[in-house]
Each structure stands twice: as structure tokens, then as C-alpha cells.
Design brief:
There is one protein chain. By secondary structure, the protein is an alpha/beta fold. It is 36% helix and 23% strand. The protein has 15 helices and 20 strands. A seven-stranded mixed sheet has the order 1-2-6-5-3-4-7, with helices on both faces. A five-stranded antiparallel sheet has the order 16-20-19-18-17, with helices on one face. A hairpin with a 2-residue loop joins strand 18 and strand 19. The longest helix is centred in the C-terminal third of the chain and has 15 residues. The chain is globular. The protein starts with a strand and ends with a helix.
Length: 448
């Protein structure tokens, strides 16, 4: 298994593709990229995270950087810390939703955003040259703990103008929470307590030992779904290991759909705006329902290639009010420039409390589409050739977008085929008004 180096950072299998030598190389390159200034680091709680963070931290210090360590925390907390400090960069030690044997590093610029395409290429070139100037004994960096950011992050979410805690407290919502023993356990239970929720915790001990496959998709959430029904809970929340993604389970144990996390949050935010013509930014794989929501509020939906930084960069360019990805991530610039699972929990509970009904009733009030996601191991497949073939096949009958793989769009449906940024797979995602048509779209591409 090779090392995955992409706009989503560096990740690999510990002891195989991600070794101490690799960590030192990229940490030294990031020290140079950040001009040997102050770096904030945090990790998601994986068992391998401690040793990776120690190597990372020592390498940055040896390069003359000051290091501020947050410890185990959500990746969004690191982005929040960058926005609210004078640090010149940050590193989140995480492999996000990848399995237990994986770990990695996501690099954050002084803007409080992950590295964009140009910054990534500059950073990769530094790493490739592998020529670093380590500091003399009297010029090594200073190390400090900065545990204040977790509480500040929580306080900032609760202080958002969209939040009215008393409305949520009055509802007395019963929540089953699954943090997969990842970093979400450091913040989400506290958030729910402050919102007056009754909490039934599943895997919130931050041990880093994942109780199930960590990607928060329905097939990995059977325990959460059963627990919601058994406990007669109002809602279930699943947070991925580094707490930037949120999946929601309805009171009947069925998925709300991770695609609808950003839809529900956008509904709340746009409903509070007096100003029209706002921009909402999402990626090319996000549900068409977001377009219906933006039209409802006279806003505009803008799409980008998949990748959190692509969405965030476009949001910054357009001064967008909010955005996110259909993988369960919501981005709110007034908080920070990244997806945030804790933010999603808070905004969703606010929307649910104002709505007044059950989660399933809330879902039915939103635009309805049938989406299907599948994937194929890349193996010997050539993504570029696949895109060329599909373009030739569909360009006469559909709108074609080649910004990220190929997105084939019809008036009421679409299909997106692209190489993953984080795994050696091709992703195929399709959506239409009904399941049969969606399956037909998937099949038409798989056949080719």
C-alpha cells in the first residue's frame, strides 16, 4: 500500500507506507514552508497518534519552530485555533475516516485553512528536495500545551447568532451519540450537556480504539441505529474520528442521510438571513437538494471539486455565508474555515427544536432525492481514460463537468465519477428523483 499524498494531506499505513522517516521529511518540509514560525498541533486519538505526534513535534522543534500542542482534539479545533491565534501553521494528526491501521497529517496554513492546490505543490516540492537546515542547540523551538482552545471552540459554537439554547433546552431532546472512541468525545458530550440534552453515549471514551469501521455511513452504524430505537431516542449522532463529519439517525433508526447534514444546516442559516443573493458553496458530489434550498431563499449554489479546501477557498473568494460537503461536513466561516461535526450537531438541534416535530418529519419537509454511492478498486484502471470514454459517450445528451473526474448532469439527475483523494479507489455517486433511475445511472457507467 503506497503513501497517499493529496490535497487532503499525507496518510498511510503506520509502519508500512507511513514510517518515522516519512514523518520527519514532511514535518521538516512544513517547518520550512511555515518559515520556521509557531505551529499548532493536535491529534484525533488513534493509538498510533501519540508516537506520530511526538516525532512530528520533535522534528518541528529541531527545525526551530515553536510548537503549541492541543493534545487529542477535533481537527476543527485546530482550524479554530489558527483563526484565533498568531500561529503560522497547524498540523492535524489524523487519517480521518480511514481504518485503524492508517494515520496521517493534514497541514493548515496561517490563514486557518488547509493547504490549497498551489500551496500543496509548493510544500510537496520542499519535501521532495529533502534538504533541510536544522536549528543549532540554542535555536531549537519552544514547546507548550494550549488546552484552552477546546473550551473556546465549544463556547464559540454556543455563542453563534443562530443558536438559542433555551429553545433547545425546552425540547429536552434525547440523543444517542457515537464518537467511535475518537476526538469527538472531547467536545460533543459537553456540547449536548450545555444544550440540556439527555445523552446515551456509545464509544465516547477517546481511547482511539474504533468500535466499528469509522466512516459514518449507514452500513457502519447498525449499533447506533438499534440503540436509537431501543432507547426511544429523538435522534442519533455519529461523529467520525477527527470530528469533522456528522451523520444523523432518525428516531425510527433510519439514516437521515449524511448528504442532508449540510442541507439541514443551510436551511437554518438561510432562514435567519434578511439579505438575499447569498452564496452557498458545496462540492460536485453533494445532493441536488441543496440547490432547491438555495432557490427557496433566493440564494445561489456554487459547486467545486471534492475536497474541503476547494469548498473553503471558493467560500472565501465569494464571501459565502456557509457551505460544506455531502459527506456530512458543514463549514461556517464566522467560526472557522473547515468542516465541523460539533457545529453540525448544534445547528441541527436548533433547526429540530424550531421545527417542533420528529426528525423523520423534518426530513420529509426537505427536498427528496434518491442517491447511491459506490466505489471500485482502481487496480489497473486509468481514471483519465475512463473520463475520456465517459465524455465521448454522454456529451451529446448531458451537461459535462470535468473539474474533478467527470460529472454528467441531466435536468433532474446526475452522476459523478472520480478518483478518491484519500483511498486508491474510484467513487461513483448518482442521484435522481427515484431509486430505480439512480440505479440505472450507476449501471450505465459501471457497464462502460
Amino acid at each position: 500500500m503506497s503513501l497517499m499524498v493529496s490535497i487532503s494531506g499525507v496518510r498511510g499505513i503506520i509502519g508500512k507506507s507511513l514510517t518515522p522517516e516519512i514523518i520527519v521529511s514532511y514535518a521538516s518540509a512544513f517547518a520550512e514552508f511555515s518559515k520556521h514560525q509557531t505551529i499548532i498541533i493536535g491529534r484525533d486519538g488513534r493509538i498510533s497518534g501519540k508516537i506520530l505526534t511526538n516525532i512530528l513535534s520533535s522534528t518541528l522543534l529541531a527545525n526551530g519552530c515553536d510548537v503549541q500542542a492541543i493534545g487529542i482534539c477535533p481537527t476543527p479545533t485546530i482550524l479554530f485555533a489558527l483563526k484565533n491565534s498568531d500561529a503560522h501553521g497547524g498540523v492535524a494528526v489524523t487519517a480521518s475516516h480511514n481504518p485503524q491501521q492508517w494515520n496521517g497529517m493534514k497541514f493548515v496554513s496561517e490563514k486557518g485553512m488547509f493547504l490549497d492546490k498551489n500551496e500543496s505543490e509548493q510544500f510537496w516540492n520542499i519535501a521532495k528536495n529533502n534538504s533541510f537546515n536544522y536549528a543549532c542547540w540554542n535555536e531549537i523551538g519552544n514547546f507548550s500545551y494550549k488546552e484552552i482552545y477546546l473550551q473556546q471552540h465549544l463556547d464559540a459554537i454556543l455563542a453563534l447568532p443562530y443558536m438559542q439554547k433555551e429553545i433547545i433546552k425546552k425540547r429536552k431532546i434525547k440523543v444517542v451519540l457515537d464518537c467511535v472512541n475518537g476526538a469527538g468525545g472531547t467536545i460533543v458530550p459537553k456540547l449536548l450537556e450545555q444544550l440540556g440534552c439527555e445523552i446515551i453515549p456509545l464509544h465516547c471514551d477517546v481511547s482511539g480504539i474504533f468500535a466499528h469501521i469509522p466512516e459514518p455511513v449507514p452500513e457502519n452504524l447498525s449499533e447506533l441505529r438499534a440503540s436509537v430505537v431501543a432507547n426511544k431516542a429523538d435522534v442519533g449522532f455519529a461523529i467520525d474520528p477527527d470530528a469533522d463529519r456528522l451523520a444523523i439517525i432518525m428516531e425510527n433508526g433510519e439514516p437521515f442521510s449524511e448528504e442532508f447534514t449540510v442541507v439541514a444546516c443551510a436551511e437554518l442559516i438561510l432562514s435567519k438571513q434578511s439579505q438575499r443573493n447569498q452564496n452557498i458553496v458545496v462540492n460536485l458530489s453533494t445532493t441536488k437538494a441543496i440547490e432547491d434550498i438555495t432557490q427557496k431563499y433566493n440564494a445561489k449554489c456554487v459547486r467545486t471539486p471534492v475536497g474541503e479546501i476547494n469548498v473553503a477557498s471558493k467560500m472565501r473568494e465569494l464571501n459565502s455565508i456557509c457551505g460544506g460537503e455531502g459527506s456530512g461536513g458543514i463549514i461556517l466561516p464566522e467560526l472557522h474555515w473547515g468542516r465541523d461535526g460539533s457545529l453540525g450537531v448544534a445547528l441541527f438541534l436548533q433547526l429540530l427544536s424550531e421545527f417542533g416535530g420528529k426528525v423523520s418529519e423534518l426530513k420529509n419537509s426537505l427536498p427528496q432525492y434518491a442517491m447511491k454511492k459506490t466505489k471500485i478498486e482502481i487496480g489497473k484502471l486509468q481514471p483519465k481514460e475512463i473520463v475520456e470514454t465517459l465524455t465521448e459517450k454522454f456529451s451529446s445528451s448531458a451537461e459535462i463537468n470535468l473539474e474533478d473526474g467527470i460529472r454528467i448532469t441531466y435536468p433532474d439527475s446526475w452522476i459523478h465519477v472520480r478518483a478518491s483523494n484519500t483511498e486508491p479507489i474510484l467513487r461513483i455517486i448518482a442521484e435522481s428523483p427515484n431509486e430505480q433511475k439512480t440505479n440505472e445511472l450507476i449501471h450505465s457507467v459501471q457497464k462502460i
